[in-house]
Structures are given as C-alpha cells and as structure tokens.
C-alpha cells in the first residue's frame, strides 16, 4: 500500500472550487468579448519553453523568479514568466503572419515570488497585443481595452497611469547617469510602490549613484501635479532630448485616447512610472484600483526591440495584460461579483429509483432545448434533493413524478422565490430561460 500523503498545495498556488471557478469564468468571458470587439484573435503557446527563449529577456530581478530546470532529456527549460516573450518567439517563427497582428491569450504563468495578497506563484494573465505597427493609435487601443475591461466588470474608481520609457531615458540623461545603467535605474524606480521613496533613494545610494543624480531622480519620484497638462509642461522644462520625445508621445497618446472615448478622469500621466522589465521601449502603463489595497491589476507597454532578438528583423509591438487573480480579488473586496455559484440552470429530480429513466429522458429533452441540466444521481429523497440544489446554487428544480408523467407536465420550483407551479415542459423552458438570460 502506498504511503499516505498529506494533501497540500504549494504556497502561492491555490485550488478554485466551482463557486470561485464559475465567477472567474464570468470575468474571463467578459474580457474575451472585449478583446474580440477590438479585433483580437486567440493564440495559444506552451507552458514550458526552452531556456534560450526565456533567458536574458526580462532583467536580473525578474529572471531570478523564473522556474528553471533540466528535464529528463537534459534540456534546459523553464515555465513561462509571462505571455509576451512566447508571443515574440511565435512571431519570429511565423514572420509571414498578416500584420498588424492582434492576438489575445488567457493562460497561467509562473513566478517563484514571495506570496502575498494579490501576488501568487501561479496566476493567470489575460494578454492582448498588436504586432507590426509603430502607430501610437495601437498603444491607445491597448489602453482603451483596459479601460473598457475594468469598467465593464463594474469598477468605478481606478486610474490608468501612463508614461514612456523614453521619459525614463530622458531622466537618466538629465541626471547624468551612464546610458548603460538605464535598465538598472528603471528597475530600481519601478520598486517605488513596494519600498517607497526612501527605499528607492537608499538603493540608488548603495549602488553608487552620484548624489546629484539621486537628487534629480528624487525630484521626479516625489513630484505631484494638478493635471496631466501640468505634468507634461513640467516634463518639457525638465528633460533633455530623449525625455522630450517621450513627452511628445504622451501628448499624442492622450489625443488618441480622447478619440477612443477613454475619459480623462481615468488617465494619469505619471512621470515616475518605469515598468521594471527590460524589453519596454516606448509608452508604458499600469492600472490601479483606488478602493482596494492591491498591486496594479494591469500593465504593459511598447516593446519594439524584443521580437528582433529572435528574428533579426524589426517587428514593432505593443501590448497589455490584465491580472485575473487581482481583478477577482478586487471584485470580491468590493462585493460586486454576480451571485452565481453554478452554470447549471435546473435540477431534474428523481421521484423514486423506478422513475430514473423517465427523469433521464426529461433531462435529455431539456438539454436539447438549450438548458444546462443536472440529473440527480444520488439516493436521497426529494426534500434532500432540493437541499442539494440549494447548496449548489441551482436556481430551479423540476419534479417529474407519476402525476406529472400522466398529465404530460412538470412541476417547476423556483428555489430563490420558494414557489412552484405545474406547467407544460415548453412553458418551463421559457420561464427558466427568461430568468437566466433575461429574455
């Protein structure tokens, strides 16, 4: 006999029982509809990639979080850290795919991170990218998708922070920092939300940055502005050439966002936003919820040079990601998730064991008419069967005993209203569909 194993999951991962899984599916379906609305098609990639694909793309801090191992064949591999690098590999392997290429992917990624609220070792990213265009309208569409996604899920108070890595490059130039330290500086500034201003300044000092350089960075990360226009005006007077190019991008991006119907009230120009991954080259953004204590629920930006690493050819690209776990947690914290525990519309009860075949025939008929039907297969009485339906959150139950069989009708019980009525099968289907679908 095998040794008994204590059931457990790795910290930072979790099971989602049906009630949670159903509500997560609700979120995913909402997002899929919006992705499709904007012309994105699905793409699927493997969970495991060759290390050559993953290594050297994210930066030192991020690379330390990749689950890396050798398989039984001695191959150096890793679990995907995100969905952007695998997309870049796909484009390099399929260079003739029609451009601009708009794809979405909803799939798990893995990071050997320290678990905390809203931060897991296994979590789902909902990515959407546009490959093959330098137009800033593409970046605006990405941000518009974020805005519409969060709004459609019921969030009211959130900000989409925007900046450009060109602005960060301009900050580095203005601060007199060698350009080869651009990625390192961006990664340190990106820790602002985690370690605060004092923590960022301390790390810069520990890494040997000059006091004058630290002072310039402090000016940016502590600056507050009354409006996006004030932030842009400040940037024009503060930055050098690269920074001014970034400010110009932000001005154009704000114009496009207005055209796409994204309200100014949800957009915040944040000149300290850095995004720590090395592959970003242009506009970047993060979305944060104002009413709950969570890390950013969305992030992304332009990464014009990443695909070239794989293909040797320039493929401009921009994209974004929505974090399913953080969005789900935010909806839970705000108590704005729909009260749905199951996809099942109706339970067909079994009057007695001798009536199982009749109930099964009825269940088949209801399924053919478009309902999601659970046929009760346990051994309990009708009262207990109703308790089972209530426990699962099934909204309706049908009785199909000798009286109903003789009359060619069913008894439909609305478990929420605690009412029941004898009716024809077609009428029961209509009532259920009207309650479930609203028509």
Polypeptide structure, described:
With 439 residues, this protein is an alpha+beta fold. It folds into two domains: 18-334, Bira Bifunctional Protein, Domain 2 (BirA Bifunctional Protein, domain 2); 346-437, Anticodon-binding domain (Rossmann fold), CATH 3.40.50.800. The protein is built from 17 helices and 16 strands. An eight-stranded mixed β-sheet has the order 1-5-6-11-10-9-7-8. Strands 13-12-14-15-16 form a five-stranded mixed β-sheet. A three-stranded antiparallel β-sheet has the order 2-4-3. β9 and β10 form a beta hairpin. α6 packs antiparallel against α11 (241-259). It is elongated. The N and C termini lie far apart (56 Å). The model has no long low-confidence stretch (mean pLDDT 95).
Give the helix/strand layout.
Layout lengths: L17 H20 L3 E2 L5 E3 H4 L5 H4 L4 E3 L5 E4 L4 H10 L7 E10 L11 E10 L4 H17 L5 E7 H10 L7 H8 L2 H15 L4 H11 L6 H11 L2 H19 L7 E3 L13 E7 L8 E5 L3 H6 L5 E7 H11 L11 E3 L7 H13 L4 E3 L6 H11 L3 E4 L2 H6 L1 E6 L4 E6 H13 L2
Parallel strand pairs: 1-5, 7-8, 12-13, 12-14
Antiparallel strand pairs: 2-4, 3-4, 5-6, 6-11, 7-9, 9-10, 10-11, 14-15, 15-16
Helix pairs in contact: 1-5, 5-11, 6-11, 8-9, 10-11
